[in-house]
Amino acid sequence: MPEVPPSAAESLLARAREEGRARLRVYIGAAPGVGKSYKMLEDAHELKRQGLDVVIGMIEAHGRADTLARIGDLEQIPLREIGYRGVTLKEVDVDAIKARRPQVVVVDELAHTNAPGSGHEKRYQDVLELLDAGINVITAVNIQHLESLNDAIASTTGVRVRETIPDWVLKRADEVVNVDVSVETLRARLRQGKIYEPAKVEQALSNFFRKGNLTALRELALRQLASDQAGKAQAYRTREGLDQPVIPDKVMVAMASRGSARTLLRVGSRIAGRLASDWFAVYVETPREEPGRIKPQDHVALTDNIRFAEQLGAKVVKLKGSRVADLLVDFAKREAITHVIFGQSARSRWDLAMRGSIVDRFLRDVRDATVQIVPVRDDPASDEDAGSG
Questions:
Q1: Which residue in 86, 168, 341, 350 is a FRET match for 11, CA 20 to 30 A apart?
Q2: Where is pLDDT greater, at 290 or 138?
Q3: Neighbours of 167 (CB within 10 A)
């Protein structure tokens, strides 16, 4: 008889026992309602049947009866109550989970932003703390919550997702499981009231849950899974000595000291993730941008860009000098950069000429690098969130 492949639950169990560190499994889907929470609970029950100590740290059922029923006899750690502006909010109680010390904990909604007063700003940071404490975590996220895809999702769906996670969090996952259903099945679930309450159904069908949107999101989820699998396979082959080491690709985002660079940084993060590569966010501090001389608004923008780049997993590099093109070209050569990303705005002819001269230098002097020009809008509000998915 052919060998029966292990279930997802058995896989997690076996690998958790084989390795010393806690493991992270992420269920990813194209949109709300594909069944991520339900699948997590199914696997949690399977782990419990196999003898593991499994608890629920947070499950977001959104009132869905089948999901609530699937909780069954799984132990639930009470949520932490936090008072905020006269309202009591409930968040994952990380300390209580660590004190209980289960072998596996289910923590839903990885991209969630915690209430003010929580131990961490984001739930993914709660998950990282639990992993550091030696507790295996099962969690879930939708593809539109990946930060590097934020601009692509906004242009595709017309919705700017507010809550995101850096792509490196997904890279930390030991396993990524795609929970997929057809577009028609998902829209049928929506019509049946299994995703949103009836009053929101028609609006959702006409907006985020349009067929074109769901098809594009589903494709992104499948591509993300393929990219994740390819990266992990390459890492395994290298670790086991199964192939010859190759010169790794290196990505560099040329980040100005003024204005928002979020669009460029998202592109850099996405390319680096596709190549399973480290990447750099590089800016040049010219004499007029030194501390004490830089304009206050430019200092704020630069600080925000640096923080955002670090959140996405970039290595931020500051170069100092007045010859911007020379410094960037020298850095790219020294680090053997293979992909360079510049922003192209429509601010002024002079600005375009200056940016163009740097690009021309790269095309002439850094022949082994792919140069990508990314259109960016000058309006600072263009990178602000405009709604959630």
A1: 168
A2: 138
A3: 22
Please provide the size of the chain in residues. Answer: 389
Residue 41 pLDDT > 90: yes
With helix as H, strand as E and coil as C, how does 120-168 read? CCEHHHHHHHHHHCCCEEEEEEEHHHEHHHHHHHHHHHCCCCCCCECHH
The pLDDT assigned to 146 comes to 92
- Strands in 370-375's sheet, in edge-to-edge order, are 315-320, 279-285, 251-254, 339-344, 370-375
Q: Which residues make beta-bridge pairs with 273? A: none
- 202 with 325, same domain: the answer is no
The domain boundary, picked from 196, 212, 239, lies at 239
Closest by Cα among 115, 141, 143, 138 to 127: 138
Can you give the CATH number for the domain in which 229 is found? Answer: 3.40.50.300
Handedness of CA 254, 260, 262, 264 (dihedral sign): negative
In a domain, 246, yes or no: no
Neighbouring residues of 19: CB distance < 8 A, sequence distance ≥ 6: none
Which domain does 260 fall in, by range?
A: 251-383
Q: Is 322 in the same domain as 277? A: yes
SS in 3 state form for 109-129? CCCCECCCCCCCCEHHHHHHH
Assess whether 147 and 122 both reside in one domain: yes
Q: For residue 66, how many C-alpha atoms fall within 13 Å in the half-sphere facing its CB?
A: 14
The CATH number of whichever domain residue 340 belongs to comes to 3.40.50.620
The C-alpha atoms of residue 387 and residue 144 are separated, in whole angstroms, by 12
Specify the number of domains making up the chain: 2
Based on the fold, state whether residues 290 and 201 are members of the same structural domain. no
Model confidence pLDDT, tens digit, residues 86-107: 899 999 999 999 999 999 999 9
Residue 128 CA to its chain's centroid (Å): 14
Residues 196/190, Cβ–Cβ less than 8 Å: yes
Phi, psi angle pair for 241, to nearest 5°: 70, 30
Please tell me whether residues 109 and 212 are part of one structural domain: yes
Do 161 and 131 lie in a common domain? Answer: yes
Instruction: Report yes or no: 341 and 264 within 8 Å, Cβ to Cβ.
Output: yes
pTM of the model: 0.67
Strands 24-29 and 175-179: parallel
Q: Using an 8 Å Cβ cutoff, are 255 and 309 in contact?
A: yes
CA 36, CA 139: separation in Å to the nearest integer?
A: 9
Element (H, E) at 324: helix 324-334
